[in-house]
Structure formats: C-alpha cells, structure tokens
Amino acid sequence: MIDIDFERLRCLGLTPALAQRLATHLVPDDGLFELMRLTEVHRETLRLHDGLIERSARALPHVVRELAGRDSALAVGDWVLARADPHAALWVHAQLPPLTHIARRDADGSRHAVVSNVDTALLVMGLDDDFNPRRLERYLALVQGSGVGPVVVLTKADVATPRPDMLAARLAELRERVSNSLDIVAVNATDASAARALAPYLHTGQTVVLLGSSGAGKSTLTNTLAGTPLQDTGAVREHDSRGKHTTTSRSLHRLPGGACVIDTPGLRALRPDVDAATLAWLFDDIGRLALRCRFRDCRHQDEPGCAVRDGVGSDRLRNYHKLLREARRDTMTLLERQQQASVWKARGKATRAWMKVKRGE
Question: Are residues 347 and 308 in the same domain?
Fold first, then answer.
C-alpha cells in the first residue's frame, strides 16, 4: 500500500498526472510506503519531504544499482516511496519514474542527473558582465528534449535602469539568437516585483528550477520568491561579475503561493545531454539556411556558396559546431573514442614534426 494525501502533497508539486502514474507503479513488496519528494541529494544521504516535515533518509543499495544500470541516479525533485525500518531510519525503496528529467554529461560522456519533475526552467543570466548568449544557448540545449519549458530571466535589471539602451540592445541580441516563442523576462532579483513578473510560472503545484552561472542571482531570486532568506548569497567579483559557489547543492523549497522552486549551484561543466536532432531544433535558423547552400552535404565551414555562414553570426555558428561535436562524441563507443584520440595524437605529432622542419631544427 502507498500512503498518499494529495492535498498535503500538492504544495510539494504533486499533480494529477504524477498521481495517475503512481497508480500504475508496481509497489516493491508488501507493507505500507509513504510517497515523499526528494528535496536535497548529498553524498551518502537524502532529504525527503512529506508535505509536513523534512527528514533525512538513505537509498537502498538495489535502488542505486538499478538507476546506475539505466545511466541515471536520484535527483532533486524525484518522487520516491519510502519506509522507516524498525530502528526508525528512513529508506528509499523505489523511485517513481519522473515525468521530466534534466541531465548533463561529463567530459568522459558519463551522464549526471540534474533535476526531475520540473515544469519550467528559469535560465538566469545577469545584465552585467554575466551576460553571455553563447552560454545561454548551452543552457537551452541542456533543457531541450527534457519536457521542461525554458524561460530566460535577465536579472540585475537595476544595472540597466540608468542605461535603457543597454537593455534594448541586449534584448535585441538575444532575439537574434533564440526563438521568438521563448519568453524573456527582465527583473531586479532583489525586488518584490520579480515575484510578480514570474507569477505566471508559479501556480499551485508547479515546480521551477533556476539554472545559471554563479553570481547570476539564482539564490537572491529564490529568497525574493519565497519572501524570506532561505539561501545564502554572496558578492560577485567586480572585474567579471562572477560569483563564488555560495550555493553548493541543489535544494527544493516551497513558495507561499503553492509552487516549488529548485535552486542550483552554477554548473562547473556545462555539457548538455543532447543529440544532433535536438540541436537542429534549437538552431533551426541554421537548418533553414542550410537548404540554400550550394552543396547538399555542406558542413558550413570552408565550403563555397554556404548560405549559413552568410546568414548566421560567426559566434553562434562556432557554438553550434562545438555543441554538435560534443553530441556526436557522446554517442561514440569507448573503442571509437580511443581511435579518435589516436588520430588526434598522430595529427599533433605530425604538426610538431612539421614545425621543427620549418624552424630548421
């Protein structure tokens, strides 16, 4: 049996769709299980919330093994079935398959869970020196294909207030690089007006995740949305507006209006878990222009008559090529990666030999 109090769990983001999925989920074994939401993930322990209180727990080894076998892991936002043992220690017996899931990859291609069961990803970027459209495209690639709707949130609007032309120029720059259907909201994360501006994404039962670099204002925005200082915040460096990793782990918080927000630290390695098809959707302008290239197999690099190079900014095109290389590498087998490394090593050796000849050594 599963203990479910829908009204109590609704404030944690439980939706009818998730409850319906739970109804068809196979309960691990006999006994009473409690449905709880995962609010924090640490190295050895978890934090679970039942709608009333938050408790520390651990995952049973077989749960960790089963998820690892699927190249996954428990993530903040997951719904789990938990039960206390005779010593009152709380254990996770199963994960309810998430409706949405965001994951990233490491340099070696391994997949890492970021968050689960999120409705909207607020991609936070400051209007100061944190402004970086290339990095924003990476965050969009991270979210695309996960079932989560992205919204760009430009923080530090107070920085742009004395210079209206700066805000207009940066909005125009983004509109040249992202879809017109993508919402872009400029806010002052320290002001209560930010909560009103983001209210359409914070209805009862909805969950949003804040993604962005350190110093972009994610924790400040979390505190403003909650109306209370839930997260520690820190100053940013003056020369580049980057912040320290004040937030060190992902955490889910309930908001007064009935929504939930997941604050996240800045990702040190922002490598989206995407394929070539997803990138084609994100960079759809390149796909449309590619139909006008002189050669059908044009790679949009050195070929003559390339319509993409003429119609797309060089920075955006470089970012597309880099993301595409990463996506293709992630689909390679270990043997294929080793073969590619051998080719690069041979090319590097040949280049060094040629340079020695050129220098007359």
Answer: no
Q: How confident is the model at residue 246, as a pLDDT? A: 54
Of 76-90, 91-105, 209-223, 264-278, which gets the smallest average pLDDT?
264-278
Q: How far apart are CA 30 and CA 22, in angstroms?
A: 16
What count of Cα atoms within 13 Å lies in the side-chain half-sphere of residue 103?
A: 19
User: Of the candidates 96, 127, 154, which is a domain's last residue?
Assistant: 96
Q: Which two tokens stand for residue 267?
A: 């990702």
> Are 91 and 117 in the same domain?
no
Residue type for 248, please?
Answer: T
Check residue 238 and give its pLDDT. Answer: 47
Listed residues 79, 96, 113: the one ending a domain = 96
Strands (E), 76-226: 79-84, 90-96, 101-105, 111-116, 120-126, 149-155, 184-186, 207-212
Least-confidence region, from 80-94, 174-188, 230-244: 230-244
In 3D, which of 139, 118, 110 has the Cα closest to residue 266? Answer: 139
Residue 361 domain-assigned (yes or no): yes
Question: For residue 8, which amino acid is it?
Answer: R
Tell whether 153 is covered by a domain.
Answer: yes
Nearest one of 103, 84, 55, 29 to 271, comparing CA atoms: 103
Number of residues that this document lists for the chain: 361
Same domain, yes or no, for 82 and 174? no
Q: pTM above the 0.70 mark?
A: yes
Nearest of 225, 250, 272 to residue 115 by alpha carbon = 250
Domain presence at residue 74: yes
Host domain of residue 253: 101-263
What 8-state DSSP symbol labels residue 317?
H
Distance CA 248, CA 218 (A): 12
Residue 239 in tokens: 């020369």
Judge if 142 and 258 occupy the same domain: yes
By three-state DSSP, how is residue 95 classified? Answer: strand
Residue 15 region by backbone torsions, left for phi larger than 0, else alpha for psi between -120 and 50, else beta = beta
Query: Do 90 and 179 belong to one domain?
Result: no
pLDDT digits (tens, 9 = 90+) for 267-291: 766 778 777 777 877 888 888 888 8
Number of domains in the chain: 4
